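thread: overnight batch results

M.L. [08:02]
morning all. the overnight job finished for the chain we discussed friday. pasting input first so we're all looking at the same thing
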Amino acid sequence: MKVEAVEPIFDYWHITLSKAFICVYNKLSFSHPKTELYNAAIEEVVIQEEKLLELNLSGGRIIKISLLPEDYCGPEAFEVRFFNGLIVVG
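M.L. [08:03]
and the structure it wrote out:
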């Protein structure tokens, strides 16, 4: 699955992937400028419970979503909506 776009939308971030999209409501950080994330494939997803969700992309690029309690802006940190209908809320 590849990153197609990373865009701020009002008070959250929208990450468009080739087979899903992710809405991120918590603090988000990038290892590279967001335009350099485009077309990078997700190679690994790392979860550190109550700390961090990390998307490791090709080319050493990384997207980090904070799961720290103080970074929550709503009831969830993120939601992933796959194009096959599956929804994951974290």
